């Protein structure tokens, strides 16, 4: 049974279809369809074109026609490829301490930081976590984000990590947005663990990894490579095992010091995220590899530190995604579009580069090939903004919000 819908006209549609995964993109390279229409077949994109020219064929297919007034810009739904929105409590106190002069790593060493959120998340029940995820994911959906990666990593024991990953799985069943779960049991060495970092990782990989597969809880393994977390020596056997079991690898890399990006390359990770501390050497090596670099401007704004050298990375030929890193510690804002626009301002990125970073390049950072572009066969996930010129979207730095969101062909925000 095939159901067709034709939606339009939009003042402009940006399908993001004709662009490379890697390298710089001038705005002139963007395909813009004026007075465009989208024909949907079930939950997928069937075709795009000029609305008026599509009408006859759509009627012959028996399509439902939704006629708009031609005053909006349409884009693929945004993809947030890195968040930690499954957490309990708050870290407003950390934020105040940082602004009073303490560093993120100093706060972590004195028992605050990630461990504080672990304590608060362990106190929450699974149902409380589900409610928190739903609230945050729906806020994202209102801002045009139709796919959200969500990490565990505030449980830090087999059972507490499982609680988080079940909460993510069950929240996903209640939501229009798709949640893409990632296991970040290697977020730090748990303070209450009696063995070494290696013992902990061995326990997680032997006891948790098989459950993740058996219960289909996630297909991605992440680790924080940093002085306060795991070294590249600690993580090598862990990632080796994860890869052998077929998990995708992603890395919190080069946030405060370099070394994580080399681990990402060595393990052929789908993405290396953060990279605020990367120097030209790391940037060039990453740009040559297949690893997608994910800039997290929300962490820059939350910590008051450097932006990821996104311009240098694109000019070196790399694939750049941009994500919010929404978490209670380093990135509490959780506003992807605002952050991506600000990264663009500071790093001198074109509209096309920023929009690519939150659509198809972000989807590929999650190894998802069915979204992020309005292409035949892709999911009918798309959004519209109340403007006739796409350049208004980033110019307004996140204050222009989408007026409509379609997920898998359904109008979910009106
Ligand atoms: O991506 N860098 C490590 N992990 C998170 C922060 C988590 C936290 O501080 O709670 C990040 O910035
Ligand atoms: Fe993160």
From TrEMBL:
Keyword set, alphabetical order: Cytoplasm, Histidine metabolism, Hydrolase, Iron, Metal-binding, Zinc
| Enzyme Commission no | 3.5.2.7
Q: Which residues fall in a coiled-coil region? A: none
Claim: Hydrolase is one of the keywords in the record = yes
Pathway annotation from the record: Amino-acid degradation
Keyword check for Cell wall biogenesis/degradation, yes or no.
Answer: no
Domain named Amidohydrolase is located at: 123-411
InterPro entries (alphabetical): Amidohydro_3, HutI, Metal-dep_hydrolase_composite, Metal_Hydrolase
The GO terms this record gives for MF are: imidazolonepropionase activity
Q: What sort of enzyme, by top EC class, is this?
A: hydrolase
Protein name as annotated: Imidazolonepropionase
Q: Which organism is it from?
A: Sediminicola arcticus
Taxonomy of origin reads: Bacteria, Pseudomonadati, Bacteroidota, Flavobacteriia, Flavobacteriales
Name of the gene encoding the protein in the UniProt record: hutI
């Amino acid at each position: 049974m095939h159901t067709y819908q034709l939606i339009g006209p939009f003042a402009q549609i940006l399908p993001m279809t004709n662009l490379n995964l890697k390298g710089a993109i001038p705005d002139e390279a963007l395909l813009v369809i004026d007075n465009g229409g989208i024909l949907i077949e079930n939950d997928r994109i069937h075709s795009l074109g000029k609305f008026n020219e599509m009408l006859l064929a759509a009627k012959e297919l028996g399509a439902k026609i939704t006629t708009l007034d031609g005053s909006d810009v349409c884009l693929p739904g945004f993809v947030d490829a890195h968040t930690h929105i499954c957490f309990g409590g708050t870290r407003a106190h950390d934020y105040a301490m940082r602004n009073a002069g303490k560093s993120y790593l100093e706060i972590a060493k004195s028992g605050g930081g990630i461990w504080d959120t672990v304590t608060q998340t362990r106190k929450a029940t699974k149902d409380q976590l589900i409610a928190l995820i739903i609230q945050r994911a729906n806020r994202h959906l209102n801002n045009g984000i139709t796919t959200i990666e969500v990490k565990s990593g505030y449980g830090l024991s087999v059972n507490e990590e499982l609680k988080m990953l079940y909460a993510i799985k069950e929240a996903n069943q209640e939501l229009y947005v798709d949640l893409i779960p990632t296991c970040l049991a290697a977020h730090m060495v748990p303070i209450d663990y009696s063995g070494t970092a290696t013992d902990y990782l061995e326990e997680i990989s032997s006891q948790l990894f098989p459950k993740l597969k058996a219960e289909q809880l996630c297909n991605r393994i992440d680790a924080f490579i940093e002085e306060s977390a795991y070294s590249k020596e600690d993580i090598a056997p862990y990632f080796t095992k994860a890869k052998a079991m077929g998990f995708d690898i992603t890395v919190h890399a080069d946030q405060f010091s370099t070394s994580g990006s080399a681990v990402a390359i060595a393990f052929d990770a789908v993405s290396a995220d953060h990279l605020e501390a990367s120097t030209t050497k790391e940037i060039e090596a990453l740009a040559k590899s297949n690893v997608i670099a994910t800039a997290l401007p929300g962490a820059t704004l939350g910590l008051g530190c450097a932006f990821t050298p996104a311009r240098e990375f694109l000019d070196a030929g790399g694939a750049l995604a941009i994500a919010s890193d929404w978490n209670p510690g380093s990135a509490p804002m959780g506003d992807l579009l605002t952050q991506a626009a600000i990264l663009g301002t500071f790093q001198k990125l074109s509209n096309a580069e920023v929009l690519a970073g939150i659509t198809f390049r972000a989807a590929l950072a999650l190894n998802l090939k069915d979204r992020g572009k309005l292409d035949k066969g892709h999911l009918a996930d798309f959004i519209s903004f109340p403007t006739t010129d796409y350049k208004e979207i980033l110019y307004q730095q996140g204050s222009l919000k989408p007026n409509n969101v379609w997920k898998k062909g359904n109008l979910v925000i009106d």
